[in-house]
Amino acid sequence: MRFLIVGAGALGGYFGGRLLEAGRDVTFLLRPRRVAQLAKTGLVIQSPQGNLQLPAPRHVLADGIDGPYDVILVGSKAYDLASTMDSFAPAVGPNTVILPLLNGMQHIDALAARFGEERVLGGLCLISATLDDEGRVLHLNDTHDLNYGERAGGRSARVDAIAAQFAGANFGSNASENILQEMWEKWVFIASAAGVTTLLRSSFGEIVAAGGEAVSLSIFDECSAIAAHNGFAPRAAAVQRGRAFLTMPGSPITASMYKDMARGAAVEADHIIGDLLRRKAPGQAATPSVLQIAYVNLKAYEARRAA
Question: What CATH number has the domain spanning 182-306?
Answer without folding.
Answer: 1.10.1040.10
